[in-house]
Design a protein that fits this description.
Length: 525
């Protein structure tokens, strides 16, 4: 039984695994009392000083890769004749998950590939090629985030140094790209190919190429056609074809383009219901349409309006016009029908006075006298009417005063006092949103354009997210909760440097989103 290595500042607990060039141990960082994974590289690799120098440089550079889907490196050092790398401790790998549950559901497989594609796109732009995409190098945090591990090591290995350990190679044969098998110069598209092999394995539970030895596997990667998925998974064949094309120029060129292609494939089939388990097969025109969408659009959303909804909108305008026409016709008819009878009554009274006899005139005069006598007591009510009018007059006079008030001036956050700015930034620095026991994981960012009215109420004017939620059907709920909570925040009423009330517009904030326990945490970037 081999003894555990001794590394200052770390307590080694047990050995977790052994690879071609390193052994992995579970340890505890003593000063922070946290679990870490420690990868100790074998001493024989460092007999060449050129290699050891290159390895340290590349490992230090890899430690600066800051991405949610790339493992965090805490420390790099040397203990005796071995170099070691200390990184965050992750318990579950994709390999272990597949061994326990077999092939994963297609939707979960696509989400994993999208997260890894995002990590690769970030690393490729920084000049890093992974070279060894495989299930053991894809792991999961406790919150469900997919993490890619072992960046920088394979790059340092590619230095022409003679490796002495049995079975050691740069990359794993089952996942190597054709150009990698040929020993040609590789770029980020090689990682895209390896990720395509991994997607095939996630969907089917097995690698696409098998042979009795390593040489046979390498020949199949170079010469054999792209493998075909089973019939029930044939809807994903266009994606496998794009990722595993033998000619690197025919593949998706970047991780971002791969994400767009996956989203376009999903959108083309309206794959938005969580009950859908597979897509319908694509036709050649549809594949071309997805390719065009990959180039022209950036992350298409899953909220696609069905055709029936658009047809209803065509009938909306005529219906509104008809309703307005009927309403106007009814109103005009009402006034037309009400006015003529009054004119007829006047005409009748005029004719009566003209044709009435002296006896009738006398009776009418007597009736008028009696009427005046009866109406005289009613004069007492006149002052009441006047009082009502005098009461209404002040109310009518108040209306112009409201319009005379000066409107509140809009301004940016820089237009308010320094004390208020500090208070606002402190209040909005970190927000906690309680979500109860809803099961989901959220990772990414949200960008908000906020406004603050003269009373201090915060309102979201624009909302954009770069957010990954698992399961995806929970994303709308998460965004709705964030909107509702932020819209309900009240701050101190904004005032300018002269002490006058103002209204703040276009206050842009970017939040990093994470979840811990029953709360969503928004941390201002």
């Amino acid at each position: 039984m081999n003894e555990l290595p001794q590394i200052p500042g770390y307590q080694i607990i047990k050995k977790l695994g052994q690879g071609g060039m390193a052994d992995v141990y579970l340890g505890v960082q003593e000063n922070l009392a946290r679990k870490v994974a420690i990868k100790v590289l074998i001493p024989s690799l460092f007999r060449d000083k050129q290699f050891s120098t290159r390895f340290v440089k590349e490992a230090q550079t890899a430690a600066h890769l800051a991405h949610p889907n790339i493992i965090t490196i805490h420390d790099i050092g040397r203990a005796g004749d071995s170099y070691y790398i200390v990184m965050e401790y992750l318990e579950e790998s994709l390999s272990n998950r597949m061994k326990q549950g077999g092939p994963l559901p297609p939707r979960e497989a696509l989400e994993i590939v999208k997260m890894i594609a995002g990590a690769l796109d970030y690393a490729h732009k920084k000049g890093f090629i992974h070279r060894d995409i495989k299930p053991d190098n894809i792991m999961f945090r406790t919150d469900g985030t997919v993490v890619l591990v072992d960046f920088g090591i394979a790059r340092a290995m590619d230095s022409g140094t003679h490796l002495t350990r049995t079975g050691m190679s740069i990359g794993t044969p089952h996942y190597m790209s054709p150009e990698q098998c040929k020993g040609e110069k590789i770029d980020g598209r090689s990682d895209i190919y390896s990720l395509g092999v991994e997607l095939y394995e996630i969907l089917t539970g097995d690698v696409p190429y098998k042979a009795e030895n390593t040489a046979g596997i390498i020949i199949k990667h170079i010469q054999d056609p792209v493998p075909r998925l089973p019939k029930k998974l044939s809807s994903y064949q266009p994606l496998i074809d794009k990722m595993m094309a033998k000619d690197r120029n025919a593949r998706t060129q970047t991780g971002e383009e791969l994400i767009n292609f996956i989203d376009g494939l999903i959108t083309a089939h309206k794959f938005v219901s969580p009950t859908v388990t597979r897509l319908e097969p694509l036709t050649e025109p549809e594949i071309a349409a997805v390719d065009e969408q990959t180039v022209l659009t950036s992350y298409p959303t899953a909220d696609v309006s069905p055709p029936k909804r658009k047809e209803r909108k065509k009938w909306l305008l005529p219906a509104l016009l008809a309703f307005a026409f009927v309403t106007l016709a009814g109103v005009s008819a009402y006034f037309i029908t009400q006015n003529p009878p009054e004119r007829k009554v006047e005409e009748k009274t005029e004719t009566k006075t003209k044709t009435s006899t002296p006896v009738q005139i006398k009776k009418e005069k007597e009736a008028e006298v009696e009427k005046k006598a009866i109406d005289t007591p009613k004069k007492d009510t006149a002052p009441v009417v006047k009082r009502k009018q005098t009461i209404r007059q002040p109310q009518e006079e108040k209306k112009p005063k409201k319009s005379e008030q000066k409107p509140v001036k809009p301004t940016t956050l820089l237009g308010v006092t320094l004390d208020l700015r500090k208070a606002y930034n402190t209040r909005m620095q970190r927000l906690q949103i309680n979500v109860g026991r809803t099961r989901f994981q959220a990772k990414g960012q949200v960008v908000l354009n906020l406004s603050i009215d003269e009373k201090g109420r915060v309102t979201i004017r624009a909302f954009r997210d770069i957010l990954t939620v698992i399961p995806p059907r929970r994303k709308k709920v998460v965004l709705a909760v964030i909107r509702r909570q932020i819209n309900g925040i009240f701050l101190a009423p904004p005032k300018d440097k002269n002490g006058q009330p103002v209204r703040v517009v276009n206050w842009r904030l970017t939040y990093k989103v994470g979840r811990l326990g029953n709360k969503i945490f928004l941390t201002k970037q």
